[in-house]
Amino acid sequence: MIGLEDYLTVSAILFSIGVVGVVMRRNLFIILMSLELILNAANLAMVAFSRFSNNIDGQMMVFFIITVAAAEVAVGLALLVALYRRRQTAYTEDLTNMKL
Amino acid sequence: MDIFFYLFAALTLICGLLVVANPFSRNPVTSAMFLVLTILSMAGLFVLLNAFFLAAVQVIVYAGAVIVLYLFVIMLLDLGADERRRLNKAMVGLSFLGVGLLAFVLVSSIGQSEAVGALSSPRLQGTTEKLGKALFSDYVLPFEVVSVVLLVAMVGIILLSKRDLK
Amino acid sequence: MTGILPWVILFVPLLAALSITLLTLRHRALSAGLSIGAICVSFVGSLLIWISFDGGSVQYSTPWLSVGGLHVDLGLLLDSLSVTMLLVVTGVGALIHIYSYGYMAEDPGMPRYFAGLSFFTFSMLGVVLSNNFVQLFIFWELVGVSSYLLIGFWYDRPTAADAGKKAFLTNRLGDFGFLLGIILVWTTIGSLNFGEIEATMRANPEIFGSLASIAGLLVFCGALGKSAQFPLHVWLPDAMEGPTPVSALIHAATMVAAGIYMLSRVFFLFNETALLVIAWIGGVTALLAAVIAIQQDDIKRILAYSTLSQLGYMVMAVGVMDPTAGMYHLTTHASFKALLFLGAGAVIHAMHHEQNIWKMGGLRRAMPVTYWMFLIATLAICGVPPFSGFFSKESILAAALEHNAILFGVGAGVAALTAFYMFRLVYAVFIGPPKSNAAEYAHEVPGVMKWPQVLLGVPSLLAGFWGIEHFIGQSFASASAHHAAAWHWQILSPFSHAPLAAFFGLGLIGFGIAAAYAFYGNAVRDPLPDEMGRLSTAIRERLYLDEAYTAMIRYSHEVLALIADWIDRWVISGMLVRGSQWGTDLAGRLLRMAQTGNVQTYALFLVVAVVVVLWFVLKR
User: Fold this and answer.
1) Which of C604, C618, C619 lies at the smallest CB-CB distance from B98?
2) How many structural domains are present in chain A?
3) Distance CA C386, CA C463 (A)
């Protein structure tokens, strides 16, 4: 019988994969996709909790997360496009303006 | 039923891994395609959890809208395959160490979740009807707020996309 | 009536000093009159007290300060010691005040001078009358202040200003020890009143335990500075920069004797070890000063070293357990040494402020009164019978012989040296041929300066017959029987109770006078430098003690400065300042490595932070 732990384990591993992508990939588009992975990992955990505690709230939360994630992707991609236009690059090493 | 869980879980994790690190292709388009696969297998997991509405939303919104947006932008900007650049070894080591620790803390704390009081026989059905009722009764205020968020995002995108923005 | 009289005696001089300073600084004669009148009132009051004095010990005190366990009274103590000192201070003081009116007649600062003199009288009377340690210490310091003011009276002369500073600082050294001693006595006994301390000490002689010698010696430090004992004696000869009457009153007759008075007052504090140290310091001072006095040419410096030598005698007397003899010598010394200084002042006045004895000579004919009075005082200080100094000096020598033969030898040798250098002075100034124009045309001083000398000549000549020793002896339970002899028998008492000391001393004195005559009978210049060569130079240079002190202070300052420099360079500047700068710099460099500007680095930090937070939330 598959229980809550199994779903949570899948969620945790997926989350870690997403973090690896954010921390190690240099292409900003892939980083953005890795963020989607992280959000999806959270969604999975939410739905699993909702299902196994017999509470609809978790699924409602996932609904909102998906909505906000869609908005986030749209804005993020718009920002990337604007950045790319100005700097002609999508690599993080080339974007070190924050260093004095 | 268990076989489906293992199937979808394995698909999710493998495709997720291929999004982040694909040994055969360094093209962002490939990553985006594997992201679609990940999301679709996630939808399968949702179905296994009886969250039918969310599974549908996942497929429509994520796989349909978001990923298409990605592909559009990648192709618009005409990004080729990633350049091969030398990796900062210390940075890679530190990253693996940090993420390893994170995974360890997360996975090892799963066993301690007795406090959640997981039911042995879950009965919750995430049908459209149920979510719709909740959405328009208890969650009506967040629902409206989210619509405002979407409006703001839309305005922002239009503003950002104007070419003569300085 | 008798209760208020001591207070009147004490405060009238202060009143005079205040009114001169505040009101009459522009009126010369009025200021002098106020000051002289005040001390005459005090003198008459002292005489009244002496007449009604019955030999006991009376205290008048009122609580003044009470903090925690510390209770200080403002109190006066009248016993034979303080009554004697009262008479000495006011008597000698009154004559010197009058003399000053003549001596300072032409000085524009005369009102200021008399204000200082009255203030000194007040402080000195306070020292004499105090019945507790704190009050004594306060007046002790006031005496030091007035001494400073009067030494530096001619403050436009750099040497006088420096001498004042030197006197004050040297005294501070001694007074610091004195203060420590007072604190030690207070913490041990819990009282500051002399009577109570003595009673406690009698009931429990071992109360100080192992600190007994330390307590005594710390208190003695006060006398070391004020009475100018070796090694703190260096200030007294320099103090001669002040006006001569000041030297007579403060630096010969009264203030420098305050140390002896204090030692006698707290004689019960000293144990055998402390007394031995005191005796030796007195002896060394006496000998050292007498040797240095032989080769001085300045008339006042010779007298200053002779004062040092006599003070050494008195300290030695206390050290050999006969404070009565010390106080006796103090009394007689006050009269004849004041007389010597007044004579010297008269000579200096007549010589138009020339102080070198080898430019004087033949003044015997020009100034007969001064000459005869000076001669009386000289014979008294040498210890020739029947002059007063003979009796007091013999009683010290007898006490020394009783306790310590070596110190007796020192004392007797000093007596011979005293006779030698004093007659050297007399021959060079009064008897030998005139050695300058000023000496040939000198005139006798006016009456206001002449008569005080004559009046001081009386006690110098006769004080041996007045039973002073017996009177003082009432204050000491240990007074031995020979002090109680009838007055008419006293002329012979030195020979009867200590014949060896008396005859030995007399022989040496005779030898000293004869030697002085042989060398200086008709000398035009000092023959000793040729005879003694470099030894004479060394003595002339005061055995290089001042130079040694200067060098010591310089080298100790240099060592201190080196240490301070090292600490500043390596600890403060090196370790603290540069160390913190270096530490900040290093921390900055390390932290700077974290700022790559790359978003992913920051993301990694975020991950690490999340791990830490999760660890604390989930695992602990």
Assistant:
1) C604
2) 1
3) 10
ipTM given for this complex: 0.89
The pLDDT > 70 percentage for chain C reads 94
**Which CATH number goes with the domain that contains A56?**
1.10.287.3510
Q: Are residues B9 and B58 in the same domain?
A: yes
Residue C342 forms beta bridges with which residues? none
Cβ-Cβ contacts under 8 Å, B92 against chain C: none
**Within a domain: A28:** yes
Q: Is residue B121 a part of any domain in this protein? A: no
Portion 104-133 of B in contact with C at CB < 8 A: 105-106, 108-109, 112
d(CA C267, CA C322): 10
Rounded to an integer, what is the distance from CA C409 to the centroid of its chain? 25
Q: Which A residues 34-53 touch B at CB under 8 Å? A: 34, 36-37, 40, 43-44, 47-53
Residue B14 domain boundaries: 1-78
pLDDT (tens digit per residue) in C174-219:
889 899 988 888 888 888 888 888 888 888 877 777 788 888 888 8
Residues B5 and B65 in one domain: yes
Residues B68 and B15 in one domain: yes
CA distance C593 to chain A (A): 11
pTM of the full predicted structure? Answer: 0.66
The answer as to whether B118 is a domain residue is no
Mean pLDDT of chain B: 85
Q: Is residue A98 part of a domain?
A: no
**In Å, how far is A100's CA from the nearest CA of chain C?**
8
Helix (H) / strand (E) containing C71: strand C70-78
Are the beta carbons of A14 and B12 separated by less than 8 Å?
A: yes
Stretch (H or E) spanning C383:
none
Sign of CA dihedral C454, C455, C459, C460: negative
The gap between the terminal CA atoms of chain B, to the nearest Å, is 56
Q: Residue written as tokens 């144990």?
A: C271
State which residues form the domain around A63: 4-91
Q: Tell whether B1 and B74 lie within a shared domain.
A: yes
